[in-house]
Amino acid sequence: MSSRTDILQGTLDLIVLKLLQAGPANGWELTQAIQVASQGVLSVNYGTLYPALHRLEARGWVAAKWGTSDKNRRARFYALTAGGRRQLAAEQQTWERFSRALGLILKPV
Amino acid sequence: MLRALAVRLRSLLRNQAVEMELDQELQYHLERDTERLAAQGMDPSAARDAARRSFGNVQVVKEASRDARGVRLLEHLGRDCGAGLRLARKHPGFATVVVFSFGLGLGATTAVFNLTYDVLLAPLALPHPERLTAVVRTSGDKWDDAFTWEEYQALRAPPGVGTLAAQRTASQITIAYGTSREYVNMHFVDGAYFPMLGLRPLAGRLIAPADDRRQMTVAVLSERFAHTLFGDSSAVGRNITIRGASFTVIDVTPRSFRGLEYPGQFTAAIPLSTMPLLAAAGLREDDRGTPLDLATTSHSPRRAYKIVGRLALDRPVAATALDLTFGRCCVRLDAPERLTLLDIRRGIAGGKDDFRNTMGAILTILLAGMALVLAVVCTNIASLLLVRTSAREREIALRLSLGAPHA
Q: Are B3 and A63 in contact (CB < 8 Å)?
């Protein structure tokens, strides 16, 4: 457990948007995808994922639709909208600028 | 943007459905987690428990999801109204006191404001009252709105500036119909007057330029006066006698029109050119008032005319004021006097019945007093509520512990 890190505040939106770029997914798939993609380092708290999804939806960055998952169960799938794609590009740029700056600061002297 | 709005609208209007979807969504998540744990070799019921444990408090997740939709403010408003109504029903005595004192405070303030508005603020009930103007000669703070006929002729506004009209009033003019006889304040108006006002005819037609030019014996009465005189509302076409001369009523003016003077008591108007007819008819023994000053012409050399007008809509006020100064050459002005356009959207001020100067201060103080009363009422109710709420501390604590959200 000590090897796991909580998701940095404010980056969950970016992570969700990025993962949805690959195609529509439901909430459960997103939690799994976050773990897999971060090689088990990041674990998302369910209690924050769903509010985040609903917030993104309310802002018009993702669109939700009911669909059938495997085993023929109804699940809510989220897909990136055009606005979401723009937001993703913007947030990604901001993040890259920030992490580059942080890298410069933390560089061993 | 549109989609975001749709999401919010839906969660407001179809709240039940949205809540159910949230339930299903979280349920699905739990099931998938249970399966994942079971696939790792966990006992099914133990897997379900573990999944539920890792999920944490479902209510908290739901609450946070609702918050994320951003319609909490409206939802809370609805719920607060509901709670308010329930409490009011529970304590009818207190509710009555609150409603009564609010009613008193609001009612008094509204009543005084209405009065203040009518007296000090209300514009004339004519189209575009802000474009109405009166020509005056000013000298310092003083102004005088009386002109001679020659001066009015000289002041004819150049094209595009707007229209000017002349009016002259005389009091105690006799109007007779059948056996009834009334003494009124008569408006003698030139042909431009009614078109300039922009009043719409109610039943017939208003005095037109041709009426004045051809000395037509036509009259326009106020609706109220017509009713007093005829006893019914069919005035158009009736013949009345004004100082011995016979006139035909061609229209009535609506009750909202009270003339351009403040406070205004428009009762009747006839063309300016018919004035000599009245004078020629002479005074009968039951006619009162002073004889009109000229028997032969309506165009008095005395300063007897008020010049009122309407600025053209596409013309800025300042430019119009400048254009009018061409009249300087023909209007006799004493040394410091200037010709100015007066804003008369609230009526021509300064008449002998104009009580606004004396009443204005009183009304303002009264209004401030009423506002103070309203503030006191609000403070009283707020402190009463505070006392009652502190008594409800235990109930509120219980509600919170049962899961009521912190608003």
A: yes
